[in-house]
Amino acid sequence: MLPRISRALADWISAGARGIGQIEIQHDGGGFVLCHFDDIARKDLEIFRSPNDAAELAKFDDEGNYRPLKTAPNLRRGWRLELPDLEALQEALDFFYPGRLAVLAAWEANRLTTAPLRQTLHRQSGMYRVAAKISDEQIDTVVGQFCRSRGGNPGCLRTILWSRDATGARPSQHLPLEKFIAPIDQTGRGETRIPLLCQEACNLLVAEAREVVAEARETTSRAE
Ligand code: SF4
After folding, report:
1. Is 147 in the pocket of ligand 1 (CB under 6 A)?
2. CATH for the 4-108 domain, from 3.60.110.10, 3.40.50.300, 3.30.1360.190, 3.40.1190.20
3. Is 90 exceeded by the pLDDT of residue 29?
């Protein structure tokens, strides 16, 4: 029997999932071929054959900028990754979207723990402790910008499973309801795709919250 994560991946593939995030997954005999979903028709793609190549492919965007958030919709184009089997596919996807298959498998098994944003912020120490001072209104704006699937800064293709606080309130009214409903895919392609889930605010969002609080304090002290 396949381990839980491999089984979750195999189930999505056999259910007809076309890909995950910005990656298209095609069957090729017993193996798989991956490329950026906007490159499907291209014949000039650079060929890679090891799942380890995914680590490099995921690192920089098309402009050569480092991608700190792997689920941001800025995956570089121009490559084709040929993999021999499901094991290699799982390995490669773990480089492209670290931890996401494990989180999906846990969610499907009803074993995923999520944390409200305020709980995550209250857990911070050192220079990030101040992030907990962010207001609900500021959260509404920051999450609406930062986690947006398309046109955000940087934007993110994960489906948000956490609430703003213990009341269960949605963290942002600026995002569409489907941004919070798993297993809806966030690419907007209207296909069956393996969802990327967010069980807890990432460090980048925490850093952004800290920035917002610090800026607001600076503005207030300049005005005094
Ligand atoms: S908090 Fe989650 S949804 Fe928002 S940017 Fe970070 S990983 Fe993406």
Report:
1. yes
2. 3.30.1360.190
3. no
